[in-house]
């Protein structure tokens, strides 16, 4: 009996905790921020590379103090699994305090992105319908139309040598037009180049991402005065709000006079208008989030996919052959591979809702944990030859088994990205058309990486020659 007791005591004594997690030298007040200041070892817009480098020395779990916040970072897929499996039904993501503050005071409504707890749960009910297969299919024809418009646009936007310079900028127009048919259910004509509202929206969408990022990183000076980041967030929000509100008024009138027509034509907007938990302002906030959620992320994923395909003729030809088939399995594998190598989110973050054991450490409730998926998914430990773009690894015929938590480009669990299905469909529809109409040649020897602009985007312009095929 005595023996058992002392064994128990020994086990207790060796339990490592948060304070034992490795870290780097830090300084009072600034913590580890010095590493990211001008002249420092790392750059904040290259956080993924910094995390990769630090984990080489400290191992797969370590802590940093950045911008006043204590972060626990893991690059380990098993620990990521534990994190998500213990997140509960109301996962807590660190809020975007500036956006939360601005919306709460101006509209008394925060939306699904910055919200948490019961507030988040209410808003989540407004985005869940996006994951429905019937809803997704109801937009397929309109997605085809937008993709056709992009093909026509591409033919005229190429320079005299057939090169589309800085593809990302053009794909942003596609992304905005593509999401607009779903939300707000009014098609912005970004690709026909004569819609002034569309060009305001393009500028405001970019400013919004910059404003979000500038108010998110670094100390919250916006609480004291309107910083340039806060002003950008506020003014872009005002523009997008006005446009969304205008279209919502129109669709609301249709809903009041002929709900069945809206139900048939605009399944997503119908689900929002019909959701009794949501106030009018809640619906505007959600519309803005669904609209904005898919812009940078969509354009980036498409730009990077075209970049990888233009770089490798063999893979491109295989994708083109697949584009002639019905199920488009290889094209889907290409998208997965792009999202593995170039995920738009650097990390998936959660605040622990209970004490949780991650690796050797018992981590207390309320700790902010970042599962750095952009590092994990490019690690040879999880994917053979990880730096090689190899869509075949995702095909059924391939026998390689993957850790299910090694590549999580859309997050995981009750808070995972609600746009996943819709956007995956949008990707294959456009890629199919591009590959059947053009052969792609990369211009220059650009070695494209990624930088943070809230989401991660290509770090340099991607220019591609689009040569007409005979299809
Ligand atoms: C390649 C395209 C996209 C990627 C890679 C992506 C990725 C993500 C990720 C990683 C999250 C966080 C998930 C988590 O915390 O577990 C997220 C959340 C979200 N995404 Fe996406 N997304 C994409 C497109 C879209 C689209 C098209 C929409 C709108 C239709 C959208 C709307 C949202 C919203 C509203 C959230 C917040 C969900 C919540 O907090 O409950 N996303 N997305």
From TrEMBL:
Keywords: Heme, Iron, Metal-binding, Monooxygenase, Oxidoreductase. InterPro entries: CYP11_CYP27_families, Cyt_P450, Cyt_P450_CS, Cyt_P450_E_grp-I, Cyt_P450_sf. The keyword Mitochondrion does not apply. GO terms for molecular function: heme binding; iron ion binding; monooxygenase activity; oxidoreductase activity, acting on paired donors, with incorporation or reduction of molecular oxygen. Heme binds at residue 417. Its cofactor is heme. Pfam families: p450 (PF00067). Belongs to the cytochrome P450 family. This is Cytochrome P450.
């Amino acid at each position: 009996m005595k023996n058992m007791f002392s064994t128990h005591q020994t086990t207790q004594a060796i339990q490592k905790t948060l304070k034992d997690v490795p870290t780097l030298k830090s300084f009072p007040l600034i913590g580890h921020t010095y590493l990211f200041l001008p002249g420092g070892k790392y750059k904040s817009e290259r956080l993924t590379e910094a995390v990769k480098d630090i984990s080489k020395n400290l191992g797969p779990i370590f802590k940093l103090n950045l911008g006043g916040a204590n972060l626990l970072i893991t690059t380990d897929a098993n620990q990521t699994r534990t994190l998500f499996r213990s997140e509960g039904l109301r996962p807590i993501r660190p809020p975007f305090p500036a956006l939360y503050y601005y919306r709460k005071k101006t509209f008394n409504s925060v939306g699904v992105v910055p919200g948490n707890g019961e507030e988040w749960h209410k808003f989540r009910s407004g985005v869940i319908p996006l994951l429905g297969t019937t809803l997704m299919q109801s937009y397929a024809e309109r997605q085809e139309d937008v993709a056709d418009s992009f093909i026509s646009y591409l033919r005229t936007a190429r320079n005299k040598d057939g090169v589309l310079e800085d593809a990302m900028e053009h794909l942003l127009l596609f992304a905005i037009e593509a999401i607009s048919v779903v939300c707000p259910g009014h098609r912005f004509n970004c690709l026909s180049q004569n819609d002034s509202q569309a060009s305001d929206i393009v500028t405001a969408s970019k400013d919004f991402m910059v404003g979000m990022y500038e108010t998110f990183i670094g100390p919250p000076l916006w609480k004291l005065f309107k910083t340039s980041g806060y002003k950008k967030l506020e003014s872009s929000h005002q523009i997008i709000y006005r446009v969304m509100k205008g279209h919502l008024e129109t669709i609301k009138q249709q809903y009041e006079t002929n709900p069945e027509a809206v139900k048939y034509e605009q399944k997503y907007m119908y689900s929002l208008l019909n959701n009794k938990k949501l106030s009018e302002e809640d619906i505007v906030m959600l519309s803005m989030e669904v609209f904005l959620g898919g812009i940078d992320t969509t354009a980036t994923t498409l730009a990077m996919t075209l970049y990888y395909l233009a770089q490798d003729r063999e893979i491109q030809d295989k994708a083109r052959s697949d584009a002639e088939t019905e199920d488009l399995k290889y094209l889907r594998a290409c998208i997965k591979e792009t999202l593995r190598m170039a995920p738009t989110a650097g990390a998936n973050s959660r605040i622990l809702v209970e004490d949780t054991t991650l690796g050797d450490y018992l981590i207390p409730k309320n700790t902010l944990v970042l599962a750095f998926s952009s590092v994990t998914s490019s690690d040879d430990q999880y994917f053979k030859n990880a730096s090689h773009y190899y869509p075949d690894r995702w095909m059924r015929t391939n026998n390689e088994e993957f850790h299910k938590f090694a590549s999580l480009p859309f997050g995981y669990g009750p808070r995972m990205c609600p746009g996943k299905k819709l956007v995956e469909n949008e990707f294959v529809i456009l890629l199919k058309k591009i590959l059947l109409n053009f052969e792609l040649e990369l211009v220059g020897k650009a070695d494209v990486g990624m930088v943070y602009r809230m989401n991660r985007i290509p770090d340099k312009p991607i220019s591609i020659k689009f040569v007409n095929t005979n299809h």
